[in-house]
Structures are given as C-alpha cells and as structure tokens.
Write a structure and sequence with these properties.
The complex is a heterodimer. Chain A is mainly alpha-helical. In chain A, about 95% of the residues lie in helices and about 0% in strands. Chain A contains one helix and no strands. Chain B is an all-alpha fold. Chain B has a two-stranded antiparallel ribbon with strand order 1-2. Chain B is globular. The termini of chain B are far apart. Classes of the chains: A mainly alpha, B mainly alpha. Chains A and B meet through helix 1 of A and helix 4, helix 6, helix 11 and helix 15 of B.
C-alpha cells in the first residue's frame, strides 16, 4: 500500500466516523446537560438548607 | 502591504449576513455564561463543574477545548508546509488517546484520587514543596505556551473576513476578542465553559465536515494529490523521508507531544477528565475523544493542503501565489498562516462561512477561557493556597482566580504584539509546553506506576523540563544552536531532538533522585 492510498483511506474513514460521532454527541450531550443542571440545582438547594 | 496584496486579501465570500450570524452566536454564548453564573459559587463548581459532567457532554467539552482556533491554524500551517505527511501526527494523537481511554493510563488513577489539578496530585503523592514547584513550572510553561494564541486567532479572523488588507485590523481584532473572552470567562467558570463547549462542538463539527466536503468538491481529489506531488514530491506523503520536515526523531517526539501529553498530561485536557462523574465516564470520554483528537489535527492539515493546492495549482488562486511564495532569497509578503483562512474565505459560500467563522470564534473563546481558567486556578490552588498560613476562603480564591485571568489577558496581548520567533507555531507550542510536560509526563508516569519514586526524584524530574527553553527560536540563535534565515536555517539540534533528550534526562534524574533519597514513611504519607 502506498502512503498516498493509506492517507486517503485514513482521511475518508475518519470523516465517516466523526460524522456518526457528531450526531451521537449532539443528542446524548443534550441529555447530559439536563442532568448537570439538575445536579447543580440540587447542590444549590442543599447549601441553602444547611 | 502592496495594492495587489490588499486586493487579493479583500476577496472573500464573508458578507453582512455572516457578520449577523457571528454576532447572534456570540450573544447567545454570553447569555449562557450569565445564566449559569449563579452556580459558580464553590471552587469545585467554578473549576470542576461540580464533578457532574456526563460522558457525552465530556466528549463535547473535551473536543471543544482541544479543537481550538489555534489548533486549526497551526495544523493548517503544518499541512501547508508538510502536505499529507503531516497526517502522521493526527494518526498518533488518535491511537494514543484510544489507548488512554481503553487502559485509563494516567487519567484513571488521577480521577480515582479525586484531585482537581495535577499539582494537587504532586502533594498527595509527594509533598507540598513538589506541588508548589510543579505549579510554578506548569504556569510558566502554560502562560508562555498560550502567548501567541490571541495573535494567531486574530490572524484567522482578519484572513477569512478579508479585513487583513487593513493595516491596523489585526491589533483591533486582538483587543476585541480579548475583551470578549475575559468578560465571558470571569463570569461562570467551568460550568459556562462546559456548556458553550457543547454548543461549539455542535456548530463546529458539522461546519468542519461540510467545509472539508466543499474543499474536495471544489478542487477535486486528483488535483489535490497532483498538487502536493508537484510541490513537495514524495516528502509530501512520507513523514519518514529526509526533507519532509519531519523524520524519525520528529515522529517519536510527536508520540509524546501529540500523543500522551496532548490527552493525558496537558492540564486543560486532564481538567476535563477530573471534572467527570466517574472513572468509567473518563474512559468512555477518552475512547470516543480519540476520534475528535484525530479530527482536530486531520481536518485542519487537510485544509492547509487544500490551500497549498488552491494557491499553486488552480487559476482561482493565481493572484495569491506571489503573496505566499517569494523568489529565492527573499521573504514572502504574507505569513503562510494566512493561507488557510484566505482559502476558506474564497471557497465556502455565505451563511455557511458565517456559521464556520462563528464556530471558530467560539473555539477561540473556548480554548482561551479554558486556558485562562486552568492556569489561574493552578496559581490560586497550587501556589498561593499551599503557601498561605491563614485560611483561604472560597470567595477569596474565586476572586483571585478572576483577577489572574484579567492579568493573563494583558500578557497575551503584549506577547502577541511583541514576540518575534520564526519557528512554526506547533513547534513553538511543543517547546514552551515542554518546559512543563517533559518533566510532568515522567513524574506522573513514575509517580503513579513506580512506588519508589520520591520527592527528590520528582523535583529533579520536573526541573529538567527547563532544558526545553533551548528549543525556543530566539534562545537557540543566542546560544548558537541555530543560524541563518528562517526558511534556510541551520540547526545543530532540532526542537524534536531537544525534546527527546529532555525526556531522557528527566527519566534519568527522577530515577536517580528516587534511589539516592527515598521518601521516608512520614514524608510519603
């Protein structure tokens, strides 16, 4: 395999995987944000109660 | 700047609609910062987002931080000068990050110890003086490292928007961006950083994918390959050949720099791991981030390659050729850093260009706020707090951190205007960052995996990183390690060789110091 072909496969392979990952992170990351805000709110309330 | 250069630089697709997109996006980011300000009360929340970041948000924030505008610029520069051969660094970054994700190498034990910063690990593992020393070296290296960020980021903005043709534009854009970042970072700390990193991930990942597809369809794959072959020959594809600007010592250096250091030792990346909710989340974050650690180098390298081909092998870029390539013995009118933004400004259509520029400015802000936050919190937590005899309240810590952020802002503006080095930006960053990471990589690795590592060994290992200063262009020239003009310089030792030697010395000194003076039970505890 030549370097040229190797880099071509590498570039297009990574582009494909990254496209899938971008969709996944967009959807599941939004869910994590909701969890994060909820957790910080609970922290806030605990501190106020103390 | 000549009239021809001004005319060439002002040709861009960036218009009013793009400007509106950028402004709306930035206002949206600022609004997020304001909304989450109320949660930034405690130090854990301010610098560690309450250790409540889930794995998918972790991937977004890791990517958001590490895929900064500065990364895009220095990587494009490497693609422009090195062609496809530069891809080896992206490959290394991805493989090593995946290895860290699968094994938990370094970051797993750090997360288990529940430390917030790497110097905090030094104190838990060794002693307070090692923590303070580690903190000082970390800040010295980190602050030097980010010295050129503001200037390089601004060069992208003025290049892609076409305002590079105005002589004072660069300085004004630097000031404007700096004010924006400072206002934003001092507001919400890590929580706002994490949230805007997510927005940035979404905008930038799709924007970068689209821009890459556009570049291929605009130039054609065959033209790209032929263009690189004509300009660089075999060296444009094979990173091991002489004349590629890389070679074996460079590749080994990249395994440390773009590989292990980039994901497992560099504090901004580690800070993300330490903010995660569990070690399992850290491993998922790293395994998936191996893709984005590859992409953050790969796509900008590719854009740099496309810019090279656009300028040298297509009629549309003909007017740019004289600006980036001067006759032998003369200096080109424009730095090659401008090549990629000018290329994007010409091939990406309006609206998409606006979204891409907004994403890049967000990337710029995200990198800056993370770096400002990381270095200032290291000074507060790892240098000032351990040295204070009186109790140091949370309120005072957050206030000091914010003051330090503003001071650092003044420094990057000063450094961006006055530093005159001639090496590639990636190599500059490798050298300055190396002051910290050559020693830290060894001390972290041995400190975690070799029980006998002692405080003296750690101190010697960390101090050996100072040898990396000899890799800086002005210092290399001052001590005779380098001579001649930029494009034809003679180097006795390259930056990569100095880096490898420094790592070797750090290992030897850490082991030697640990064997000569082991920690007693008391100091070790």
């Amino acid at each position: 395999m030549t370097w040229q072909l190797f880099w071509q496969i590498f570039l297009f392979g990574v582009l494909g995987i990254f496209a899938v990952m971008a969709v996944l992170v967009t959807i599941l990351g939004a869910r994590d944000i909701r969890k994060l805000i909820r957790g910080l709110k609970e922290n806030d309330e605990d501190r106020e109660n103390e | 700047m000549t009239e021809a250069a001004k005319e060439a630089l002002s040709q861009t697709n960036f218009g009013t609609i793009d400007l509106v997109i950028v402004v709306v996006y930035l206002l949206f980011s600022l609004a997020i910062g304001l909304m989450v300000k109320r949660y930034a009360g405690s130090m854990t929340n301010y610098i560690g987002a309450g250790r409540k970041v889930g794995p998918w948000l972790g991937i977004a924030t890791m990517t958001g931080t590490e895929l900064g505008l500065i990364t895009v610029m220095y990587s494009a520069q490497k693609g422009f000068t090195g062609g496809f051969a530069a891809f080896h660094m992206a490959l290394i970054a991805g493989v090593v990050t995946l290895f860290v994700g699968l094994t938990g190498f370094i970051v797993g034990p750090l997360r288990r110890m529940r430390v917030l910063t790497i110097p905090e690990f030094y104190e838990k593992r060794f002693s307070k003086p090692v923590r303070v020393l580690g903190g000082i070296l970390l800040v010295l290296a980190g602050v030097l490292n980010m010295g050129l960020f503001l200037k390089i980021g601004s060069q992208f903005i003025v290049g892609v928007t076409g305002i590079a043709s105005e002589s004072a534009a660069l300085n004004w854009v630097m000031v404007g961006l700096l004010v924006l970042v400072l206002a934003y970072t001092t507001l919400g700390g890590m929580i706002s950083v994490v949230l805007t990193d997510y927005v940035q991930f979404v905008v930038l990942s799709f924007g970068m994918l689209l821009a890459s597809c556009l570049a291929i369809s605009h130039l054609g794959w065959e033209t790209i390959v032929d263009g690189v072959t004509t300009q660089l020959g075999a060296a444009g594809f094979d990173p091991t050949v002489e004349g590629s600007g890389f070679g074996w010592s460079y590749i080994f250096w990249q395994i440390i720099l773009a590989g292990f250091v980039g994901c497992a030792v560099w504090p901004t990346a580690v800070a993300r791991a330490l903010a995660m909710e569990s070690e399992r989340a850290v491993r998922i974050q790293y395994s998936w981030s191996s893709v984005s650690f590859t992409v953050r180098f790969l796509l900008p390298y590719f854009w740099g390659i496309c810019a090279l081909v656009f300028i040298t092998a297509t009629p549309a870029g003909e007017d740019l050729k004289a600006l980036f390539f001067a006759p032998e013995g003369e200096q080109a009118p424009l730095e090659n850093l401008y090549a990629m933004p000018v290329f994007l400004g010409r091939i990406v259509p309006p609206v998409l260009l606006g979204i891409l520029v907004a994403g890049m400015i967000a990337a710029f802000m995200s990198t800056h706020d993370s770096y400002f936050l990381t270095w200032s919190s290291v000074i507060t937590q790892d240098i000032v707090a351990p040295l204070k005899r009186k109790p140091f309240s949370t309120k005072s810590r957050v206030r000091l951190t914010r003051i330090l952020i503003v001071l650092m802002g003044g420094y990057v503006l000063y450094w961006g205007i006055f530093y005159k080095g001639s090496q590639d930006i990636w190599d500059y960053m490798g050298v300055t960052g190396g002051i910290y990471f050559t020693g830290a990589f060894v001390v972290l690795f041995l400190g975690i995996y070799w029980k006998r590592t002692s405080s003296l060994g750690a101190t010697l290992g960390l101090c050996s990183g100072l040898l990396m200063l000899f890799g800086l262009d002005p210092l290399q020239r001052a001590v005779g390690l380098k001579s001649g003009p930029k494009d034809d310089a003679v180097q006795i030792l390259t930056e990569a060789q100095i880096g490898l030697i420094t790592v070797g010395i750090a290992i030897a000194l850490t082991v030697l110091g640990s064997l000569l003076k082991p920690d007693t039970e008391r100091t070790a505890s």
